[in-house]
Amino acid sequence: MIRTLPNSRTYTLGFKLYVTLYFVFLFAPLLVTCILAFNDSQFPALPWNGFSLDWFFSDTPDRVGIFHDQINLDSMWVSARTAFFVTILSTIVGTCAAFLFEQESFRFKQALYFLMLAPLVIPGVILGISILLFSNSLGTFFEDTWNIDVGLFRPGFWLVVLGQFSFISTLVTLLVSARLKKFDHTLEEAAMNLGANRFEVIWHITLKFLRPALIGAAAVAFLMSFENFNTTLFLVGCDATLPINLYLQVRDGSTPVINAISFLLIVGTSMLALANLYFSRKEK
Amino acid sequence: MKSHNIKLGLICFLSPVLLWLFLLIVLPHLDLLFMSFRIEDDEGRMTWSLLNYFNFFDEPIYWLTFVRTALFSIVVTLLTFIIALPVAFYITKVVAPKFQGFLTLLLLLPFWVSELVRVYGWMILLRESGVINHFLVKMGILNKPVEMLYNDATMIMGLVYTSMLFMVVPLLSALESLDNSLIEAAYDLGANMWTILTKVIIPHAIPGIVSGSIVVFMLTLGNYLTPNLMGGKNSLWFTEQIYNQFIASFNWNQGAAFGFLLLVLSSLVVWAGLKLTRQKLGSVVK
Q1: Of A117, A162, A270, the CB nearest to B285
Q2: pLDDT (0 to 100) of residue A208
């Protein structure tokens, strides 16, 4: 049954086989995607025609590698900018929320906490359409009442940022709260006794203590934003983010350039994931 | 002085959180509800009406897609659980402890990668010119390639793959806390594997199972990418109906009604799951 009990050979072997198959299932699509990024072929398919870096560096009419593919490079830049702003906003607001729910007491705290968790159980598509509807209503209202046209209310860069921010902040709140729970309050009290005010305490002591959680939460926020599709789909304007742009290409037939982008994404996110894990381990 | 400070702190923390939750969560969803009861009358003015909801029940394609999406999401949740449980059990209880950390890491790694990349990987594996067909034809198992994408089975597999993480993680932590001696005791008393599974392991892991199932169900229900790319035109997923109303037909009020129905369904299931097992949302999301 378990490692401390005698197990039959078939049981152990069967279990090993199952878990191996599971990992094959888990990694097959990613591995194949990576391998085919280096195939010397016009299509992301076998047969293997030999190793080639064309889909990264080539710049000929029938093969435009990712580093010369202006549309995809632009969408990466859009995604990076979006993720940057989402990370900053959600880290600040999420940290505020963590302090609010861990250290303050006020009426309706439970209700507000419940509301803060809501974005986790609202499907991303619904979040997208309701923010789209609301911003459109606001836009119409501003135009009808004051005759001003506010660009922010139309689908576009800032609406995507707000849409992603609306649920990523919840994740940040939970990650920071988890660390804040372990905070030793006597440190705060000591600082207070020595004459520091609340904000000095937070700035010099609590935030120092929270730093690893803040970095981890920011990394998660960046990745979540960079990869978000569902919410972004409805809020995106003319500058598509990378997932939206990739989706359009995959839907209408694909070239190995998508494999090249996927390869870069897989390598990039794995590094970020491993770094995140390494630092959180070190902290313990 | 001190109480003044505390008040100020409360206001500083409360105001951004209130702005966030009211401007981006509460008001937009109230607007969603509001818009779903509005229609354009013959003269082009907006009036109150239940027509958007009547349309949903009137047109079989709408409610059939809705029911289909709900049922498939249940199937996906069940399958995800059945596949994930042995893996979680193996990693927490069977494998030598020194491999535990490594296997857990390996388990989580693919899910850091964008869903789009993972779905794309399946597409180049399964499509007619795909890698699996290439090998099957080469080995002589198939005469000519077959299209393995764009059917229900593939779509379900894709959805299971996409949401696997959210089942495995809660199961891992639930089984982690199960005391080995309980299993040993049951074994010594002569229980067979099935009895141990149903009488010891599953009852202990119920909180993990519920939180995993809720998240998997909700994510599957709201998924757009996987059904759309792996199910193709036959996928008939409800989020696609919402997308069509918004982007293709530009009938936002109808889309709002659909969106609200989906939101109600997903909230109902989350609520029922929590009630059935007497858990709180706060404890589930951790």
Answers
A1: A117
A2: 82
Q: Is residue A274 part of a domain?
A: no
Helix (H) or strand (E) holding B3: helix B2-21
User: From the list B12, B21, B161, which residue is nearest A115 (CB)?
Assistant: B21
Tell me, yes or no, whether B35 lies in a domain.
Answer: no
Range of the domain at B123: 46-285
Per CB-CB distance under 8 Å, the chain A contacts of B225 are 229-230, 247
**Cβ neighbours of A247 in B, within 8 Å:** 116, 225, 229
Of B20, B109, B113, the CB nearest to A169: B20
Cis omega before residue A47 (within 30°)?
A: yes
Distances (CA, A) of A222 to A82, A110, A217, A277, B121: 9, 29, 9, 15, 23
pLDDT score, position A83: 93
The CATH number given to whatever domain includes residue A145 is 1.10.3720.10
Partner residues linked to B46 by β-bridges: B40
Domain assignment present for residue A89? The answer is yes
Which residues on chain B are in Cβ contact (under 8 Å) with A1?
A: 93, 183, 187, 193, 196
Using the beta-carbon criterion (under 8 Å), do A33 and B109 form an inter-chain contact?
no
Q: Once rounded to an integer, what is the mean pLDDT over residues A275-284?
A: 71
Q: What is the distance between the alpha carbons of residues A245 and A239, in angstroms, rounded to a whole number? A: 9
Q: Is residue B116 part of a domain?
A: yes
- CA–CA min distance B207, chain A (Å): 17
- pLDDT at A241 exceeding the cut of 80: yes
> How far is the alpha carbon of A197 from chain B, nearest alpha carbon, in Å?
8
> What's the number of domains chain B is made of?
1
Q: Name the minimum distance, in Å, from the CA of A216 to any CA of chain B.
A: 14
Q: Give the Cα separation of A195 and B262 in Å (integer).
A: 54
> What domain range is A189 assigned to?
71-253
> What CATH number is attached to the domain comprising B123?
1.10.3720.10
A129 vs B114, B117, B246: nearest CB: B246
In a domain? residue A108: yes
Here the tokens at position B118 are: 């993972």
Q: Inform me whether the pLDDT recorded for A270 exceeds 60.
A: yes
Strand, helix or coil for residue B47: strand
pLDDT at A160: 92
Q: How many domains does chain A have?
A: 1
pLDDT confidence tier of residue A163, bands split at 50, 70 and 90: very high
- Look at A130 and B255 and tell me if their CB atoms are within 8 Å: no
pLDDT per residue, tens digit, chain B (286 aa), is 445 556 777 888 888 888 999 888 999 999 889 888 888 777 777 778 888 888 888 888 888 999 999 999 999 999 999 999 999 988 888 888 888 888 888 888 888 888 888 999 998 888 888 888 888 888 888 788 888 888 888 899 999 999 898 899 889 888 888 888 888 888 888 888 888 888 888 888 888 888 888 889 988 998 898 998 888 777 788 888 888 888 888 888 888 899 999 999 988 888 887 787 766 665 555 4
Identify whether A281 is part of a domain.
no
Which candidate, A244, A28, A145, A159, places its Cα nearest to that of B157?
A28
